[in-house]
Amino acid sequence: MVRTALSGLVFRKLLALRAADLAAASLTSGALQNMIVSDTRRLEEAITYAHFAWHAVPELAVIFALATVSAGLPALAGAGVILGLVQLSRVIAAAVGRRRREAIRATDVRVRLTKEVLTAARAVKLNGWVPPLAARLAACRAAEAKPLRAAAQLRASSSVLRDIPSVAASLAVFGTIAAVNHGKLNPEHVFTVLALYNAVIRIAAIAPMGLQSLAESQSGMQRLAELMLLPRGASPAALDGSEADAAEGEPGDTSAVRLVGSYAWTHDSMESEAERAAAVTVSINPLAAEEAEAPPAEAAEAPPAEAAEGESTGGWLHDLDVSIQPGSLTAIVGPVGCGKSSLLLAMLNELHPVQPQPGGGGRGRLTPRRALRGRVAYSPQESWVLNATLRENVLLRRPLDPGRYAEVLDAAALRPDLDQLPAGDETEVGERGVTLSGGQRARLSLARAAYSAADVYLFDDPLAAVDASTAAHLVHNLLRGPLLAGSTRLLVTHASQWLPLCDAVIVMAHGRVAYHGPPAALLAPGRAPAAAAAVLRRSLDEPAVVEAAVDGASGKAGKVKVEEKAHTLVQAEKTGEGEVTWETYRAYYLAAGGLPTLALVLAAYLLQALASLATYLWLAWWSDNSWGLGVSTNIAVFAGLTAASTLMSVARARGLTAAMLRAASSLHDRVLERVLRAPVSFFDATPVGRILNRFGKDQEVLDSELPTALQACGELFAGALASFAVVVRSSAPAGTSLQH
Fold this sequence. Notes:
CATH superfamily of the largest domain: ABC transporter type 1, transmembrane domain
Largest sheet: 6 strands, mixed
Structural class: alpha/beta
Number of strands: 10
Number of helices: 25
Mean pLDDT: 75
Shape: elongated
Low-confidence stretches: 235-247, 269-314, 539-566, 734-740
Number of domains: 2
Strand order of the largest sheet: 6-7-8-3-9-10
CATH topology of the largest domain: ABC transporter transmembrane region fold
CATH class of the largest domain: Mainly Alpha
């Protein structure tokens, strides 16, 4: 439940963020993947295991009190040892947390690069880029494995603290008692204190889990907090209604779209722009004076900065005052990087509004205001396509209106494509529309926007992905057709031949509106900036294209072809059910190092169990004085057995952890090689998210969860064997048992 709630919270926050904030926060796909998969899980574990840490305090207090009642003040020596080990556990947990944060940053890089390779798998394979990209991914994995290995080894070393508190505390208590009582131990005191301190084993086993879960969750909490503290943009419901946006408009303003002020992608661009304000102002003034001599009667103009054509805006839109009349078709033109797409995003409240400063200061002169009246549909420059059927992509969960649906398909020139698809509009288009061409994806995005029956349409250069005849069909049947009649349409385009068919033209230059008015006004000499007039003059060089477009613009809506046969591109994910097969165990066993590694780990477990058993037996012999040794000898032997048990605990934990990490890296490399060598059809039929789960969530299980679980299982099994051996030895037949 906790993970589900946190994941939902992350998704809702991402939907509410401005595009500018998302870009400025450097939230890569790899970071978001780890945030949802890894950070939420660690927070859930922290909520579960954190109680083990504080609950250990009263339990230890009760144990120390009972031990003191039984053995007197020497029991406090054991308490001091245990408290020292607890402090050591805290230090190790903090070190594990630091290594985990390093590993998370490396994992973000690896997952992001993996997603980029998988997303462009077709281009990667067709261009022969598999070897160099595989080498880069291997290098990312190596960089990730280093802090992972350090954290895992620290965690393994801390597991020793689950084994030694009992014997270490017993050594301190019994050594103190022997020194006070001249080397004699009372069996009643010995086994009472031993039983009490054996209870510390359980506490020492779970308390570090709480401390480590808290330490490891800190990075996740910090990342989630940074995301949640980002300023909210428009709510997800803002595009469906106009109450909030209309409230920003001026009284009596009937514009369908109004945008006033300056807007920036990042706060850094605001500061850098302020530093360049003086230079920009000087370059603008001559043009401003020239335009003031002959202002056009029906056009609103803002002079562009003097700079080379195509220069980037630097992330700024300057002093805008744009008003779009209802029911009009407005074209937005200008060189590459002048701010056309940013203008649409500013209308959608995806950029930062820049508040003016007293005296100018280079941060804009107009107070930002934004108004969008009615429902809004946006078709981005890079078409967003669902991994679903073509019909589901157009409807986008809206009810099916057969009449409008058929009209949309005809207007978007999708009907010829339906005749070619194996199941008509029920054909699955694959991940990101991989089975469609760029022009088909653009027309699919247009069809989705048109079917929404919005009041305002924002089209970001959809004509660039289609040929001339298709562009003509889209202009006359969709953009200027009866389907969108009466709605307000803004079209970003580089196809200047269509400007005479628009009601108004906005010319962008260097983040400013160089011209806004009817196309005809651009033709009058001296009434518009030279750069703006040249845009329309270039469009008049292609009259044949316009005439051909008008002649071929007719078309009638027909019936939608729907095949009866099912078409499934994406196959259902296959998951194993039942018990884990022996083949899986064998693959993991071989990846971990095979028989030599297994033999060494089992030997370490056996030796540790024998050393632990020997410490208990030696206490029994010491309390009975079976060997007649002096106090110093008894203490030395007991201390040696305790040290041997500790060293074997460290050896078995680190050996097992090293083997598990070797297996995790080996399996990662094998899976990566298989995926990169898979045919292109595999990527068409397999969603990227499904593959990323293997390299994200499942790899996290191999790296962190499985080594911890196997180590705990082995320790419990070895401890159970040692306890069983003690019981068997103590219950031996008369004549062989210890005389208490």
